[in-house]
Amino acid sequence: MERIFKAAKASGFEVFISPHYFFPTDKGWKMNGPLEADEFETGTFARSGVLSLENFENSGADWLNSFKPYIEDGKTIVVSPHKVFGNQTNDLTLQLRKRQINKIVLGGMLANMCVESHLRELLEQGFEVCVVKDATAGPRHPVWGDGYQAAMVNYQFLAHAVLSTDDVVKAMS
């Protein structure tokens, strides 16, 4: 991801972040899937409040330190948070449409959950999407299986392109 951030910034491409946060009020949800339940239990994407950054730094909701120079440069568009997996619950599509952006390079955490959900919604909304196969990560679970491999199969069926970081960086130059 860092190489993609660097190449995008150097070539003048806009960068968008679709963060995943849970706020204290979200603990009132009456039904959660297995992954959501685990994220609530572990506090993986927990924020102390909608308007608070208290205890945010170095939490599971914070950016990786190596990404902060790119995300916190005042030019990256950080959209409103998504709550479960996809951008149906945030303003990513609005932000892209207002900028007349139609082609997306997609990467990020949880290949088979958040990334795939974003891919599917962006495709449904008419965007052309390339997924960067080595700029995603997926969980391996002893019972549920290999999330990364599951995502790679689906990306081939869904995305307009599935490329490596090397290919994407070269294309951005």
From TrEMBL:
Pfam families: Isochorismatase. Residues 3-160 form the Isochorismatase-like domain. Keywords: Hydrolase. This is Isochorismatase. InterPro entries: Isochorismatase-like_dom, Isochorismatase-like_hydrls, Isochorismatase-like_sf. The keyword Metal-binding does not apply. It comes from Caballeronia sordidicola. It comes from the Bacteria. PANTHER family: ISOCHORISMATASE-LIKE DOMAIN-CONTAINING PROTEIN, PEROXYUREIDOACRYLATE/UREIDOACRYLATE AMIDOHYDROLASE-RELATED. The lineage of its organism: Bacteria, Pseudomonadati, Pseudomonadota, Betaproteobacteria, Burkholderiales. SUPFAM superfamilies: Isochorismatase-like hydrolases. One of its GO terms (molecular function) is hydrolase activity. The keyword Hydrolase applies. Gene3D superfamilies: Isochorismatase-like.
